[in-house]
Amino acid sequence: MAGPPGSAGGRRRLDRAGRRPRREPLARVWRNARLLLDHHPDADALVVLAACYLHDLVNLPKDDPERRMASRRSAALARERLAALGYPAGRLDATAHAIEAHSFSAAIAPCSIEARIVQMPTASTPRGRWAWRACSISPVWIGSALAHPDDPLAAARSLDDRAYALDHISCKLAGLPATMQTAAGRALAGERVAMLVSFRNAFADEWQGETGG
User: Fold this and answer.
1) Which residue has the higher pLDDT, 16 or 159?
2) Does residue 46 contact residue 92 with C-beta atoms inside 8 Å?
3) What is the distance between the alpha carbons of residues 179 and 185, in angstroms, rounded to a whole number?
4) What angle do CA 73, 79, 80 make, to 5 degrees?
5) Which of 25, 99, 9 is nearest to 55 (CA)?
6) Is the pLDDT higher at 8 or at 196?
7) Number of C-alpha atoms within 13 angstroms, CB side, residue 168?
8) What pLDDT score does 12 carry?
9) CB proximity list for 188: less than 8 A, separation 6 or greater
10) How many alpha carbons fall within 13 Å on the CB side of residue 163?
11) How far apart are CA 112 and CA 100, in angstroms?
């Protein structure tokens, strides 16, 4: 299985601007999930595939007070769309659970191996420049700055990712490996975070040179 389930309409992500989703990030989530599936032959690959491509059907801004409900709404919408497409009825519950449990803000414990697999790539797929692109775009949406002008790595101040996008790496992303539910997931997430931290440090060196010059 190499592609997303459903029609183009079924893959459309619903956000405030009514934009169509970019397929590349979803494809990366699925590629990473396939790495974990190699370690868990007992997992249902179809459930993982569907959840990877449909986990973000309802996409709310990071500052939306209802953001913690986004994964539940995505799961409900995915269930509806998949049922209409003739997806196996016996797999709908498992797929919906994998979707709603992927989000840490939803605080839903992943109770199946499929949900544990999906949680890892959706949380830590971004790496290096891809992750930093996400951090650099977020300030435009929520009014924060890219980084602290004098102390981007928070050596002498408290971290605040609502004020500085760069702080989000230390506030949340760096701690993700420890939350992964499988050994393979923790190892892969650790590799991704190490790449991201290295990129962050290089960025901070340049940032301080520019702002201090």
Assistant:
1) 159
2) no
3) 9
4) 95
5) 99
6) 196
7) 19
8) 38
9) 32, 35, 36, 120, 124
10) 9
11) 12
> Which one, of 2, 95, 115, lies nearest residue 50 by Cα?
95
Contact 161, 171 (CB under 8 A): yes
Q: Is the dihedral of CA 158, 161, 167, 172 positive or negative?
A: positive
Residue pointed to by tokens 């209409």 = 84
**For residue range 91-131, what is the model confidence (pLDDT) as tens digits?**
999 999 999 998 877 778 889 999 988 887 565 444 445 45
CA distance 77 to 94: 14
| Residue type at 58 in one-letter notation | V
Residue 1: its pLDDT value, please?
46
Q: What is the DSSP code (8-state) at residue 91?
A: G
Reported as half-sphere exposure (CB side, CA atoms, 13 A), residue 206 has a value of 6
Ramachandran region of residue 37, left (φ > 0), alpha (ψ -120 to 50) or beta? Answer: alpha
Residue 207: both structure tokens together: 């940032």
Q: Which tokens is 63 given?
A: 């500052």
Element (H, E) at 203: helix 183-212
Residue 146 and residue 167: Cα distance in Å, rounded?
9
Please give the average per-residue pLDDT across 62-83, as a whole number. Answer: 89
